[in-house]
Every structure is written in structure tokens, then in C-alpha cells.
Amino acid sequence: MSAVAAPRGAHTSRPKPKAPASDRAKAENRLGQRLVAPAVILMVLVTAYPMLQALYLSLFKYRLTTPDDRQFVGLGNYATVLTDSLFWRDTFNTVLIMVVTVAVELVIGFVFAMVMHRIVFARGAIRTAILIPYGIITVVSAFAWQFTFSLNNGWVNSAFAWLPGISPDTNWFGGYGTSMFAIMISEIWKTTPFMSLLLLAGLSQVSEDMIEAAKVDGATWWQRLRRVILPNMRAAIMVAVLFRALDAFRIFDNIFVMTKGAQGTASSSFLTYTQVIEQFQLGLGSALSVLLFLTVLLIAFGIVKLFRVDLAQARGEG
Amino acid sequence: MATTDRRTAVGTGVGFVVILVWCLLPVVWILSLSFKGVDETAAGSPQFLPKDWTLQNYKDILANPDFLDALRNSLGISLIATLLSVVFATLAAYAIARLEFKGKRVVLSIALAIAMFPVVSLVGPLFDMWTAIGLFNTWPGLIIPYMSFTLPLAIWTLSAFFREIPWEMEQAAQVDGATSWQAFRKVIVPLAAPGVFTAAILTFFFAWNEFVLAISLTTTTGSRTVPAQMSFFVGPDPFNPPYGQLATASVVVTVPIIIIVLLFQRKIVSGLTSGAVKG
């Protein structure tokens, strides 16, 4: 992130004679490629190859229970999926979860980052506290919040009974809205630390002198935030939003544990999983996989365009 | 000025308490739940703390062979995946930080793309492939995909870290009469070790947490990891989830995380932010 990172020291970028390629440069080129080869092969083998296979399988009517009945249907699976209301409902859920959790996390995460940035005491304690949700298993977080909202054994109903709409027998997992709320709380709790740490890194790159100068010029707290701090953190915010949005879009663990998709709370990932693993619909499931992959690409592209940041350039790898 | 400073200090203090409560409350809650007996949760126990504290859940869970198998699988798979992933990532990150070669941008783009990859898309094809070549329901069947999905994070963290190392010290040591091996071992390894260690922690967290592949590519306790095992654990009475035992299992698998966080919080924070923000 050259926009926010400290300039790279002279020692890290040795001058390289460009042309003509000397033996030394050729050897360096070869060594570099050999060193990255194992990692690249592994990454491509486990993702690109299966993805191509999914693309191929998505053109067949193919159930694992009757493998001999495999039959070419062209884009038939895609037509089936795209005309199914279940697919659109689950896509809507996923987008809803993504938008709401990322927006909430951006606000909470920023407040956390501000506190961590300004705090002068107990820095270690606060870092430890914030890293616990980050490190905890998502399934554990899902159980913790499922039990929190549980009808018979949760503490939320008794603790918040004074709020309108909550009574000792509020069944959180009995309806769509409240189930989604519980799922989102678990997701937000687990992933806000990641967001706030990225924002903290961005915040610490904003020059204190600039903020001080704005203060001297009479800028209010709100003006300093909007005109000085946030614009200078744009790159960090963009990275945080991109990563969190794509991560939230893949939501699966929380839904699997908390509702198993009941009350219409399934996500795109959950739908794909149930088609492949529970229904053995490999053809249809592969079509869903391909669509999910394309959606992720689309979202990534959209966010990068929206924030107008070239990631490769931003990473200082021009 | 003085009043705004005081206001900031009060705000920070309040924020500190809010953060602690928000982050730790669910953890304290499962801890409390783990001490509630079966009778208490079966009858419904909405109060926060147990009425009767009991260690029965811990005795049960630590004598449960399925859970112990899952714990062993989780530890083995996560540690092996971490070790291999970090070795591969160290080689790649060294090349990216230190050498000029064709395709560097391609490598970084692949890593970025894989970090965003929807894992569930692979469930179908991997299920098919692993069944065909006999990796289904085995340790390597999980270790291989875990390595590929942790490599991007490890490569970023390490290449960011390696760029900051003063490599000319290696030459300086050689000028002073050290052999290249001595220079590498005595100068470069101590400088690089903290970065490698940080990448290992982040990789371990990923593997320890992974769920989608763990439930899709395993069927028995021979290779099922803790998150998968927990999600299938219904207990003797399907209409009454074993709250106390699930909470206890949660506590047991969270303990290693808490220990790692307590010991290495500074490293984890620097690793996370350098990997993703400074690149």
C-alpha cells in the first residue's frame, strides 16, 4: 500500500540493470521463478483446476447417487437456477448480510480503532481482548450467540425484557427477521476485530501534524474527521471493505450452526453446500458454484472500481 | 483545549470498557454455560451464571472419544498444514521481496484472487476428485486445500516482512569472515524468524477455524476436525441440544487460541496489518 506505507528503504530496492539481460539477471529470474513455483502450483491446482471441472460438470445433469445417468444439458442447469425463487431469495439474504455487517463493522471498527489509537494505558490488554473474537472458531461464535438468543437458555430475553418487543418468551429463531439479526450479530462480533485492526493501521498513517494544523485552523472534530482523517485513510478503508465484504459474502458457518437455513435464512454458500453434499446434485451444484464465483468476481471488481484504487499499484508492486 | 483533551480521555476510557465487554462477554457466557449441569439447561436456565456449579461437562467431554479424536485431527491437520504452508510461503516471499523475475505480478494476483475465493465453490469438484483418488476423508484431503487457502495470507505477511530486513548485513558478515552459511544462519535467520512465526500463527488460526471443507470432505472421526464434530454433535436427546457440553467443547478449543493471543498479541496485530495494508 504505497499510498499509506512508509517509503521503502533504499536497501530493499537494489538497482537492477534492465537490458541486456546479463547471466546474473537470467539466473536471478530463474531462481525467483523456481522459488515461487511450489506455492503457485499448489494454489492453482486446488482452485483453478476444480473450478474448471465445476464449469464442465455444470453442463450436465449429474447426481452422485446415479453417476451412470449423467446427461449433457448445456446451460439447462443455469436456466433452472436462475429461474428458481430459492436462488434469488438466498442471494438476497447473502447480499443483505454482506451490506449490513460491513456497514456496521465499518462504524464499530472505526470507533474501536480510534480508541486503540488514542489509548495510553493497557494497550496490551485491549489488543488481547480484540484478538480473541478474531482467533475464536466461527462455529464456537455461532454456538455462543445461538445460546445467547436461545429461548430456554439464553440470557438476552431476561436481560433486555425492558425493551419493547422483547419478552421472556421471545423466540429469536422462530422468525426470519430475528434469526437474521442473531446471525448478523455473530458475524459482526467475530469479524469486527479484523476490520478495526486494518483501520487502526490506516489511522496510524495519518499525520498528526495535519490533524493538529486543521485544529489550529478552527476545524471542528467532525470536519477534521471528514476532511482530514477519512480521506487520508482511503486506501486502508478500501482494503478493509474489500476483504470483509467478500468474506461476508461467503457466510456459511454461522448459518449452518445457528439456523441450518430454517426460516428462509439460507445464504448462497449454504444453498450450494446443500445441493452438492446433501442432495448430491453435482451438476446443479456446480452451476451454483460457478455463479457464486462470478458474483464474487463482480463484487470485487465493483468495490475496486468504486474506490478507484489499483490494488497492484497500491501494494507497491508497480 | 484542556476540556477537549479531558473529553477525549473520558471517551477513550469509556471506549476501553465497551470494547472489553463486547469482546469478552460471549466468551464469559460460554464459560459460565460450561459449568451448568444437564438438568439445569434441560429445565431452561435463562440466568447468566449457573445455579449449581458443576464440572460434570468437562469430565464428560474429556472422556468423549469422538471429541478427543476430533481434537487430535484438528491439531494434527492444522499443524501440518501450517508447517508446509509456511515453508512454501517463505520460499515464495523471499523471491518476491528480494529477486527480480518475470511473473511476480502474476503470482501476487493469483494470491489475491485465492484469498477472495468462495471456498464452497470447491466443495463439489473436490468431493468428486478426492473420492476418485482416495483422498476423501483423510488428513491430506484437508491439509492440501488448507495449504492453498493459507498461502496467500502467509505470502503477503512474509513478503511485507522480508522487505524490511536489512539484507546487506548478510554481506557485511561475509566481509567480516563468516561463510555464507554462517551469515545466513547467524544473521538472516534471527531477523526473519519473527515474521515467519507470525505467518505461522495466522495460518494456524485459519486451519483451526476452517469449517466448510471440514464438513464436506470428511465422514468419520478418523479425520473430522473439532468444528465439524461440534456441528454434528446432537447428544442423546435431539430435541434438547446439549448446551453445557457444546459450551464446554467450545471452551476447550478456545483455550489454545487465548494462550496464543496472550503470548503473541503484538506479533499477530503487526502481521495482520502489514500483510493486508502495507503489502
Automatic annotation (TrEMBL), chain A:
Keywords: Cell membrane, Membrane, Transmembrane, Transmembrane helix, Transport. Residues 91-303 form the ABC transmembrane type-1 domain. CDD domains: TM_PBP2. It is found in: Cell membrane. Coiled coil: none annotated. InterPro entries: MetI-like, MetI-like_sf. It is a multi-pass membrane protein. One of its GO terms (cellular component) is plasma membrane. Pfam families: BPD_transp_1 (PF00528). SUPFAM superfamilies: MetI-like (SSF161098). Residues 1-24 are annotated as: Disordered. GO terms for biological process: transmembrane transport. Gene3D superfamilies: MetI-like. The chain crosses the membrane at residues 35-56, 95-116, 128-151, 287-307. Its main location: membrane. It comes from the Bacteria. Belongs to the binding-protein-dependent transport system permease family. PANTHER family: BLR7065 PROTEIN (PTHR43005), SPERMIDINE_PUTRESCINE TRANSPORT SYSTEM PERMEASE PROTEIN (PTHR43005:SF1). This is ABC transporter permease. It comes from Marmoricola endophyticus.
UniProtKB/TrEMBL annotation, chain B:
InterPro entries: BP-dep_ABC_trans_perm, MetI-like, MetI-like_sf. GO terms for cellular component: plasma membrane. Residues 71-264 form the ABC transmembrane type-1 domain. Keywords: Cell membrane, Membrane, Transmembrane, Transmembrane helix, Transport. The chain crosses the membrane at residues 12-31, 75-94, 106-127, 139-162, 187-208, 243-264. The keyword Cell membrane applies. The keyword Iron does not apply. It is a multi-pass membrane protein. One of its GO terms (biological process) is transmembrane transport. It is found in: Cell membrane. Pfam families: BPD_transp_1. Belongs to the binding-protein-dependent transport system permease family. This is Sugar ABC transporter permease. It comes from Marmoricola endophyticus.
